[in-house]
Design goal:
The structure is a single chain. By secondary structure, the chain is α/β, with parallel strands linked by helices. The protein has two domains: 150 residues, 3-Layer(aba) Sandwich (Rossmann fold), CATH 3.40.50.620; 109 residues, Glutamyl-tRNA Synthetase, domain 3, CATH 3.90.800.10. The strands form five sheets. The protein has a three-stranded parallel sheet with strand order 1-2-3, with helices on one face. It has a three-stranded antiparallel sheet with strand order 4-5-8. Strand 1, helix 1 and strand 2 form a beta-alpha-beta unit. Helix 7 crosses helix 8. It is globular. The structure holds glutamic acid (GLU). Glutamic acid binds next to loops.
Length: 313
């Protein structure tokens, strides 16, 4: 195997829909076409939203689709690829950030955050106004007695640049475009940004392929890896999938859940349909994932939203 390692990183909080399938397909093809391995990490950080029953279903769906993995999953190595079992690892990295003064406790409640006239960026993202950043040690101690804080990174005025595998050069200024972001919630659960940045590095992932909706997280994750002395993978973001009318898919589109589609279609029909919609095949034909490996290239994958054909239901 080459040194390339791709990954699937599903959040087992629901059933897989076609957007998740497309993401796994492209991550798998990109890694396999370079002779690389695939790791399955279970992003079950939030115990209230995710659970092993969904993860089992996702693993069964991936196998059914012919998207295999070499490492990880629910049962592997005593669950050490499940984020819910890795709090101790995140704790150690969190402590490093804390000892370097890069994080601070935030006592703002959700209601306060909503009430504050916080600036919003043009894409709807919210910038924390820094309310708790300047608290004195006495103020912090007094608040600690009343409420468990969340923890935020002091976003520096630093511009992170990376070259996306699919969209090319991308830059983001952390202070101006992300603001002070949460890496640990008030209930103690570590946030996605920290867990994912740490896990991609420690698990030896060299290539992250995921939905374009997450491109805005990439600068934060690269910055965290840099500050923690960890390597960064390369990132490739993929277009969003829409229905035949151009509307974004969401979990509400129950019809496009893989579980339902599995009752009517064979895996080659679903893979071939997604490959044609994404630009990997000139026209629809049934195809296995393995058959698509030799012809895969990022050049062929569309950059604009990917529209599903009307017949897939
Ligand atoms: N767990 C995330 C999801 O299922 C993906 C995170 C990532 O790829 O970094 O949407």
């Amino acid at each position: 195997m080459s040194g390339v390692a791709g990954r699937f990183a599903p959040t087992p909080s629901g059933k897989m829909h076609l957007g998740n399938v497309l993401c796994c397909l492209l991550a798998w093809l990109s890694a396999r076409s370079q002779g690389g391995k695939v790791i399955l990490r279970v992003e079950d950080l939030d115990p209230e939203r995710s659970g092993p029953a969904f993860e089992r279903q996702i693993e069964d769906d991936l196998r059914w689709l012919g998207l295999d993995w070499d490492e990880g999953g629910l049962e592997a190595e005593n669950g050490s690829y499940c984020q819910s079992n890795r709090a101790g690892v995140y704790e150690a990295y969190f402590a490093r950030l804390k000892s370097r003064g890069l994080v601070y406790p935030c006592f703002c409640s959700r209601a306060e955050l909503h009430a504050a006239d916080a600036p919003h960026l043009s894409d709807g993202r919210y910038l924390y106004p820094g309310t708790c950043r300047g608290l004195t040690p006495e103020e912090t101690a007094a608040r600690m007695k009343k409420r468990r804080p969340a923890w935020r990174v002091k976003a520096p005025d630093e511009t992170i640049a990376f070259t996306d595998l699919h969209y090319g050069p991308y830059t983001e200024n952390l202070a101006a475009e992300c603001g002070d972001f949460v890496i640990r919630r008030a209930d103690g659960v570590f946030a996605y940004q920290l867990a994912t940045a740490v896990d991609d590095a420690l698990m030896g992932v060299t290539e992250v392929v995921r939905g374009r909706d997450l491109i805005g997280s990439t600068a934060r994750q690269i910055w965290l890896q840099k500050e923690l002395g960890l390597p960064s993978p390369v990132y490739g973001h993929i277009p969003l999938l829409t229905d035949a009318d151009g509307r974004r898919l969401s979990k509400r589109d129950g019809d496009l859940e893989l579980q339902k589609l599995r009752q009517r279609w064979r895996p080659e029909e679903i893979i071939g349909m997604l490959a044609a919609a994404a630009g990997l095949l000139p026209a629809y034909r049934p195809a296995t994932a393995a058959e698509l490996i030799p012809g895969f290239s990022w050049e062929k994958v569309r950059r604009e939203d990917i529209r599903l054909p009307g017949w897939i239901k």
